[in-house]
Amino acid sequence: MGPITLLILALLLSMSSAAEISSKVGVCYGQLGDNLPSPSQSVKLIQSLKAKRVKIYDANPDILKSLKDTDIQVSIMVPNELITNISLNQSLANQWVETHVVPFYPETKIRYLLVGNEILSGNDNMTISNLVPAMRRIKISLNTHQLHKIKVGTPLAMDVLESSFPPSKATFRSDISRPIIGPMLQFLNRTKSFLFLDVYPYFAWSSNPKSINLDYALFMAKNTTYTDPNTALTYTNLFDQMVDAVIFAMRRIGFPNIRIFIAETGWPNNGDCDQIGANIFNAATYNRNIVKKLTTKPTIGTPARPGWVLPSFIFSLYNENKKPGPGTERHFGLVHPNGSHVYQMDLSAKTPEWQYEPLPKPINNEPFKGRIWCVAAKEANRSALGSALSYACSQGNKTCEPVQPGKQCYKPNSDFWHASFAFSSYWAQFRKVGGTCYFNGLATQTIRDPSYGHCKFPSVTL
Ligand SMILES: *[C@@H]1O[C@H](CO)[C@@H](O)[C@H](O)[C@H]1NC(C)=O
Ligand SMILES: *[C@@H]1O[C@H](CO)[C@@H](O)[C@H](O)[C@H]1NC(C)=O
Ligand SMILES: *[C@@H]1O[C@H](CO)[C@@H](O)[C@H](O)[C@H]1NC(C)=O
Ligand SMILES: *[C@@H]1O[C@H](CO)[C@@H](O)[C@H](O)[C@H]1NC(C)=O
Ligand SMILES: *[C@@H]1O[C@H](CO)[C@@H](O)[C@H](O)[C@H]1NC(C)=O
Ligand SMILES: *[C@@H]1O[C@H](CO)[C@@H](O)[C@H](O)[C@H]1NC(C)=O
Ligand SMILES: *[C@@H]1O[C@H](CO)[C@@H](O)[C@H](O)[C@H]1NC(C)=O
Ligand SMILES: *[C@@H]1O[C@H](CO)[C@@H](O)[C@H](O)[C@H]1NC(C)=O
């Protein structure tokens, strides 16, 4: 290389490191629904939200094609299952990049390549230990193709922390701190990438609503603040407190400068009867307030990093009906699967508050008190109910006695009614040890007693 080439190279490098990261807000485009609009319709919906970035959980070629020639910056993901093989095999890493990135770049503005999703929150030790090596291999492949604009990272959930309170005392979990987080931060530092973080004040608040003020979680607190005794930094919302905990944990192990990218945040617009605070009012309030905070100029940052940009993705584009777990999991969407908005939302934060229609008043901001039953959902697939019924009846103590022939709940003799009884009976026995009212989407909670005649359905009392 001649001196001129070197000079140009140095100039280019200094330009790219000086490139400002924008605070524009994006949206996560999860696809775990069986009723979702096509990729091209989805891109229109993403634009209707004024999202400037989108994160997908794979590298779906139809989606990447649909994003071609838009100004939307894109984050793609290597599936968890491939991490171990990619970590062992540079050709496989190259092949992944050649198949999933090269054909779409630069027309599709791929900017972030996330390796796996919340790997450190799982219990697959093999994948956990191969995570950082896989990130390195993917980075090498991108470099080989001169794809220097694409940052490599991996999303972490808050449970990578052993303690997060007070924020200044936060530490990473001891099982991952030295072997995984250390090398990961080294990689992120060297490649000038981000620590991608999933931050859900909803989960922190809802598991502890008595000691955390809801307004503090919704960026609405007037009087509630928290001052960290060690730093004297004053917090006005839970989100900042959670982000700063991670920042202090990184400082503690010698990486004070790595930027944070909010890979997911959001609030559910609905949930199960036994879930608190999942409603449209809170979801709209949280998302509108955080978008305003993140896009305000001059940049606000957090108490530990005033003025730092926090690029981010809101979770999620759609309510996704095939996500397992409690009802909130299926209700983080900004948009219904039929394309209508769950509430008005502008991710550019340019819509003034007064232009929004009034929101429905929240009715579940206090813990529910009373009885709850678990019954077959109206829309449950009738031919799948039989095996769910058998499963529920095979668990616990005399779960299904009353639906046996001749007993008080035998009639009406249908899978729908028998399953409803069995689900209630199962859930009443097992909720306290973590049993859920889900049954692959066949079951739903209700506060209306389904009992009839002499047939009394077991219930959970909160
Ligand atoms: C990983 O590689 C092994 C050995 O080559 C292969 O048998 C396996 O199917 C691969 N796993 C995945 C998820 O591709
Ligand atoms: C590495 O990956 C390449 C490309 O998929 C494959 O052809 C090769 O067999 C793999 N090598 C090993 C040792 O698994
Ligand atoms: C594997 O994971 C389990 C549970 O997540 C943990 O207790 C154990 O120490 C891990 N084993 C190794 C070798 O890292
Ligand atoms: C804030 O504090 C003032 C005075 O302590 C009190 O009158 C007011 O009701 C509080 N407001 C809220 C929203 O809690
Ligand atoms: C990487 O680490 C060095 C040395 O601690 C520090 O000066 C630099 O700011 C760090 N860069 C990033 C992006 O964290
Ligand atoms: C779209 O779906 C939602 C939720 O099911 C429903 O409330 C709404 O009325 C539907 N809108 C249209 C236009 O069909
Ligand atoms: C309903 O359940 C049956 C049995 O599990 C399955 O074969 C069928 O595909 C399901 N139908 C739908 C529409 O999901
Ligand atoms: C079933 O009954 C046994 C004996 O009474 C008891 O130890 C066990 O906890 C019961 N199981 C459930 C799920 O209630």
Automatic annotation (TrEMBL):
Family: Belongs to the glycosyl hydrolase 17 family.
Domain X8: 372-457
A GO molecular function held by the record: glucan endo-1,3-beta-D-glucosidase activity
Membrane topology designation: Lipid-anchor; GPI-anchor
The keyword Ion transport is annotated on this UniProt entry: no
Catalyses which reaction(s): Hydrolysis of (1->3)-beta-D-glucosidic linkages in (1->3)-beta-D-glucans
InterPro entries referenced in this protein's UniProt entry, alphabetically: GH, Glyco_hydro_17, Glyco_hydro_17_plant, X8
Location in or out of the cell: Cell membrane
Name of the protein described by the UniProt record: glucan endo-1,3-beta-D-glucosidase
Chief localisation class: membrane
Keyword annotations from UniProtKB, A to Z: Cell membrane, Disulfide bond, Glycoprotein, Glycosidase, GPI-anchor, Hydrolase, Lipoprotein, Membrane, Plant defense, Signal
Organism: Cephalotus follicularis
Extent of the signal sequence: 1-18
EC code: 3.2.1.39
CC terms in the record's Gene Ontology section: plasma membrane; plasmodesma; side of membrane
Record-linked SMART domains: X8 (SM00768)
Enzyme class (EC, first level): hydrolase
GO BP terms, alphabetized: carbohydrate metabolic process; defense response
